[in-house]
C-alpha cells in the first residue's frame, strides 16, 4: 500500500503489486548496527526517538518505501544501538509490521472462511471453530459418491459449503440442505466460487415445505389468467425452482441417505427423530448443538 494523498485525517493509499523479495530483510540493518550486551540501561520513557509524531506522519507521506522509513527511525533512535540483538530484531519486526502495509489476496478455502466468520461473529456460525467443523465432516463420512442429508439452522452457509466442497466437483455425490427459514444462507457457498454443476448438487429446501410435500404430495394451484399475467417472470422462476428443488429432495429422501448431520440452535431431538427414517441402515448420524447435554 503506497501513500497517495491525505484529506485531513484520512490517508489515501494506492495498491501496487509486490513480491516477497520487495519486503525488507531486517538482517541487513542488524549487520550494520552495533548492539549492547543487555538492556539494563535502557529506559522506556518514550524519549528515545528524536522524531516527533508530526515528523513521522510527514515521513510516511513523503516516503513510499517502508524500509527507508524504518532506517530513518533507527538512525534517530538513541537507544537502538544499546539494545541486544534479540531486542533489535523485535524492534525492527514491530516497525515493519506497522509501516510495511500490504494486502494479501488469497483463494478462499473452508478453513479460511471458518476463521473469518468466527473472528467476525462466532454467534452467526453457532461458535463452530475449524476443529469442530473438521470433526463434523470426519464423523459424517462424507465422500464423493453418496447422498447426504444436512439440517442446519443458521451458519452463514458454512456447513453446506464445507460438505459440498468435500463432495467435490464432477462427482456423483449429492447434498440435501434443509433449513428452517424461507431463504437458505449461502454466503460461504458463494464465496467459494464453485462450478455450476457442483452447486446444482447442493439442494437447499425448507424442512417444513419438503416434509409436507413428501407426505402429502405437491399441491397444484390453479391461477386465473388475470393473476398469472400480473405475476413477474422473476417470481415464476423462483416458484419453479422452489418446486423443482423440493421434488429433487423428495426423490433422494425416497432413495435414503448415507449420512445425517444435524446442526441446530434448538433442541435437536425432534429433528433427529423425524429425519432418521430417511437413513440407510448402519449409517453415521452427527449432531452438533450449543447445549452441553442433549
TrEMBL record:
The keyword tRNA processing applies. This is tRNA (adenine(58)-N(1))-methyltransferase non-catalytic subunit TRM6. Signal peptide: none annotated. Belongs to the TRM6/GCD10 family. Its main location: nucleus. GO terms for biological process: tRNA methylation. It is found in: Nucleus. It comes from Megaselia scalaris (Humpbacked fly). Pfam families: Gcd10p (PF04189). The lineage of its organism: Eukaryota, Metazoa, Ecdysozoa, Arthropoda, Hexapoda. Keywords: Nucleus, tRNA processing. GO terms for cellular component: nucleus; tRNA (m1A) methyltransferase complex. It comes from the Eukaryota. InterPro entries: TRM6. The keyword Transmembrane does not apply.
Amino acid at each position: 500500500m503506497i501513500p497517495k494523498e491525505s484529506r485531513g485525517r484520512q490517508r489515501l493509499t494506492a495498491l501496487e503489486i509486490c513480491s516477497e523479495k520487495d519486503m525488507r530483510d531486517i538482517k541487513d540493518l542488524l549487520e550494520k548496527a552495533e548492539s549492547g550486551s543487555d538492556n539494563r540501561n535502557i529506559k522506556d520513557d518514550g524519549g528515545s526517538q528524536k522524531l516527533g509524531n508530526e515528523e513521522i506522519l510527514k515521513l510516511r507521506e513523503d516516503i513510499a518505501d517502508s524500509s527507508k522509513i524504518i532506517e530513518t527511525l533507527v538512525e534517530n533512535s538513541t537507544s537502538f544501538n544499546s539494545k541486544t540483538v534479540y531486542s533489535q530484531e523485535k524492534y525492527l519486526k514491530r516497525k515493519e509490521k506497522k509501516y510495511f502495509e500490504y494486502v494479501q489476496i488469497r483463494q478462499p478455502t473452508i478453513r479460511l472462511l471458518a476463521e473469518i466468520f468466527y473472528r467476525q461473529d462466532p454467534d452467526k456460525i453457532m461458535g463452530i471453530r475449524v476443529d469442530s467443523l473438521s470433526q463434523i465432516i470426519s464423523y459424517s463420512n462424507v465422500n464423493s459418491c453418496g447422498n447426504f442429508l444436512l439440517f442446519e439452522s443458521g451458519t452463514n452457509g458454512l456447513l453446506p459449503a464445507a460438505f459440498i466442497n468435500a463432495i467435490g466437483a464432477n462427482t456423483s455425490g449429492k447434498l440435501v440442505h434443509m433449513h428452517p427459514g424461507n431463504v437458505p444462507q449461502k454466503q460461504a457457498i458463494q464465496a467459494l466460487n464453485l462450478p455450476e454443476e457442483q452447486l446444482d448438487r447442493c439442494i437447499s429446501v425448507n424442512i417444513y415445505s419438503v416434509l409436507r410435500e413428501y407426505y402429502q404430495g405437491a399441491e397444484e394451484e390453479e391461477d386465473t389468467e388475470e393473476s398469472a399475467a400480473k405475476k413477474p417472470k422473476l417470481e415464476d422462476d423462483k416458484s419453479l425452482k422452489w418446486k423443482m428443488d423440493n421434488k429433487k429432495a423428495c426423490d433422494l429422501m425416497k432413495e435414503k441417505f448415507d449420512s445425517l448431520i444435524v446442526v441446530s440452535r434448538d433442541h435437536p431431538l425432534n429433528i433427529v427423530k423425524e429425519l432418521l427414517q430417511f437413513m440407510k441402515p448402519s449409517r453415521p448420524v452427527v449432531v452438533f448443538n450449543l447445549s452441553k447435554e442433549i
